[in-house]
Design goal:
- The complex is a heterodimer of chains A (179) and B (462).
- The model of chain A has no long low-confidence stretch (mean pLDDT 90).
- In chain A, strands 2-3-1-4 form a four-stranded antiparallel sheet, with helices on one face.
- Chain A has helices at 19-31, 48-52, 59-85, 98-101, 106-128, 159-168, and strands at 11-16, 36-40, 149-154, 173-177.
- Chain A has 179 residues and is an alpha+beta fold.
- Chain A folds into two domains: 11-42 and 146-177, Alpha-Beta Plaits (2-Layer Sandwich), CATH 3.30.70.260; 59-128, no CATH class.
- Chain B contains 17 helices and no strands.
- The chains are: A alpha+beta (179), B mainly alpha (462).
- At the A-B interface, strand 2, helix 2, helix 3 and helix 5 of A face helix 1, helix 5, helix 6, helix 7 and helix 15 of B.
Chain lengths: 179, 462
């Protein structure tokens, strides 16, 4: 399924009670040309993102650059405070230029790299998932944080065909939502 | 697909389904606190208040109310600081290092171990703050432009490295913990009946819905955070050891300190996890999730790290002798045979001798024995820090200034207070937070649950 999916077909929701059955149902429906718009699950299902055709997340790449930002920030901070703005003789450590004094800045450079990478990645994670304190629950059915799995399929063709298919695949409840 | 070798023991006992895991883990939050919880909480709260009083007395009067003197100017405060930071390390080790090594048994214990990390790092952070004397100027440790033109903090100093290490460690551990907590808060939100409770967990769960893309990001973020937290946790205690190792005090000026401190930190941290979880599993009836398998694994870690610490102690002695430096030699001779010999030998007995019992399978799978050893280890690790700090400085280069350290009631009160504060936080956590990472645990039910494993072994693959 292409990512530039803009059609607004009605959605059919199907509730399951087993992760293997959902995974199998997603595979089956996708091979029959249906578009699975969402699966809500109580825990991560290994391999689900692949069979749904989801792209890899770029959060880890982002974290790398956030880490680099921290490293550069700390390099600048230590250069400005210790070398440029107010250089001092501290235990006779050479400080004519930053690189000479750099070995004693390594611990803080490391810490700030981790600090920036971890925190900015988490903020990005909250932002892209639209997670914030007090946000309305994003799962339409509260049972999907316990032991149920809710699949949303875009309706293509006859509704009865899809309903029958979903029943065969093990859906417990099926309902239609107008988009 | 959900296959695991029959050689591996099940990690989830009993005939559990996903929904039973939900119920078992939500139960302590939804039911009334047992009487034992109230008793423990009251005791911890009284200790906390006593400690708080001593802290306020210290701030109001000055650190002269402690037992410090001209020669021994670091004693219980820094001992307690290092002790608490060390305890914190096991949480990150369990959640990060064991995640990278794909150790599934971590899933039952990581949540509580991380909580322990955060709460103990809070206790640790208190000591340097109050030792500053003028705590209201504590923000001076940050590189903030100021009216002195600007006079900056010294980035060459291990004490400043410590500021950055501890604050990074505390905040990164907290977000790591929280990211994992969000799906579990959502589980509680979705089953809450009481509207107040539902509203609180709605706020805490950030609206989590468990979409496929969100889980994909969740797993990626957890993995990257584990990758970041692993070197971080090693760096934190390394930097704590630099506070001593970069000085020129005999007994502190030791290159073995970083690995030795890290091993000791993991050692004491696992002991504290044992102490806490043996109580939690009993009070909240979590025996099916935190079972003998987990306890045994942790005991093995305690045994290995205890032995590493033992090797470090002996290496220190050998190197002091081999260095040919008479001051270095005296520092170690004085530790083992001087006026603080009792502290040194308590440390040796508790840390090096006692974990060796864990070679016996019978002993390391015995709950009472484990509990006793976990307490003994933490006593030993407190003595280790006391020995390193006080015995190295109480007899300095000038024999006329040699002295001893005796704690005042304020020293003791603050220490007891932090233990109380720690348990107040932990007990509140245990009543209001999901103490086991249930979403993660559900992913291993089919591979490591007793019922599924049994079924698999009897009927083969299906």
């Amino acid at each position: 399924m292409s990512m530039g999916h803009t059609k607004h077909n009605p959605i059919v929701r199907a509730l399951f009670n087993d992760d293997d059955i959902v995974l199998n149902a997603v595979k089956d429906l996708r091979s029959n040309g249906y578009h699975i718009s969402e699966v809500y699950s109580p825990f991560p299902i290994h391999g689900l993102d692949e069979v749904m055709g989801l792209k890899r997340t770029r959060l880890s790449t982002a974290a790398f650059f956030y880490g680099l930002t921290g490293l550069f920030f700390c390099s600048w901070l230590t250069w400005y405070t210790m070398i440029s703005d107010w250089p001092q003789n501290i235990g006779g450590k050479p400080n004519e230029y930053w690189a000479l004094n750099m070995p004693s800045f390594i611990p803080v450079m490391f810490e700030l790299t981790v600090f920036f990478a971890a925190h900015l990645m988490c903020w990005s994670y909250f932002a892209v998932n639209k997670l914030y304190p007090g946000a309305k629950a994003q799962n339409p059915d509260p049972r999907t944080t316990d032991d149920h799995f809710l699949m949303e399929v875009e309706l293509e063709g006859e509704e009865a065909d899809l309903t029958k298919k979903l029943q065969e695949l093990g859906a417990l409840e099926i309902s239609k939502v107008e988009a | 697909m959900h296959y695991e070798s029959p050689v591996r023991n099940p990690l989830i006992l009993g005939d559990k389904s996903y929904s039973e895991i939900t119920n078992d883990i939500a139960k302590p939050i939804e039911s009334k606190a047992p009487r034992s919880w109230w008793i423990a909480f009251s005791i911890a709260f009284v200790m906390f208040m006593w400690g708080l009083g001593c802290i306020l007395y210290t701030i109001g009067t000055g650190i002269g109310v402690w037992g410090l003197n001209k020669t021994v100017d670091w004693a219980w405060d820094i001992t307690n600081f290092v002790w608490w930071v060390g305890i914190g390390h096991a949480g990150t080790l369990i959640s990060a290092v064991l995640l990278l090594f794909r150790q599934k048994w971590r899933m039952a214990i990581n949540r509580s171990a991380e909580a322990m990390t955060i709460f103990s790092v809070i206790q640790a952070g208190l000591f340097p703050l109050i030792h500053m004397g003028r705590i209201w100027n504590a923000y001076w440790v940050m590189p903030i432009p100021n009216q002195y033109g600007s006079l900056w903090v010294n980035f060459n100093s291990p004490l400043l490295w410590d500021v950055f290490a501890i604050s990074t460690y505390l905040t990164v551990s907290t977000v790591f913990w929280y990211v994992g907590l969000i799906p579990d808060f959502a589980m509680i939100r979705d089953r809450a009946i009481n509207p107040v409770q539902k509203h609180i967990y709605k706020i805490l769960s950030f609206g989590w819905g468990g979409q496929a893309k969100h889980w994909q990001r969740f797993e990626e973020v957890s993995l990257v955070l584990a990758g970041l937290a692993t070197p971080l946790v090693l760096s934190v205690h390394t930097i704590v050891s630099f506070d001593f190792a970069t000085s020129v005090i005999p007994g502190w000026h030791t290159t073995i300190f970083p690995p030795y401190f890290v091993a000791g930190a993991i050692f004491s941290g696992f002991a504290m996890v044992q102490t806490l979880l043996l109580i939690v599993r009993k009070i909240f009836k979590m025996e099916d999730y935190i079972n003998i398998e987990h306890i045994e694994m942790m005991n093995i870690v305690i045994m290995v790290t205890g032995s590493i610490v033992g090797v470090a102690y002996i290496t220190e002695l050998v190197i002091a002798w081999y260095s040919g430096v008479e001051y270095e030699q005296y520092a170690f001779l004085n530790r083992a045979t001087g006026p603080y010999w009792w502290a040194y030998w308590s440390m040796m007995t508790c840390n090096v001798f006692s974990p060796q019992f864990m070679w016996s399978k019978k002993l390391r799978t015995n709950l009472i024995f484990t509990f006793v050893i976990s307490i003994v280890v933490n006593i030993g690790m407190w003595f280790e820090r006391f020995v390193i700090i006080v015995t190295s400085i109480h007899r300095d280069y000038l024999p006329s200034s040699w002295s001893m350290f005796s704690p005042t009631f304020v020293d003791i009160g603050i220490y007891i207070g932090t233990i109380g504060f720690f348990f107040v936080l932990f007990l509140l956590y245990a009543r209001t937070f999901p103490v086991i990472a249930q979403a993660e645990l559900k992913t291993i039910l089919k591979s490591s649950g007793e019922n599924f494993k049994k079924h698999h072994n009897e009927h083969g693959t299906h």
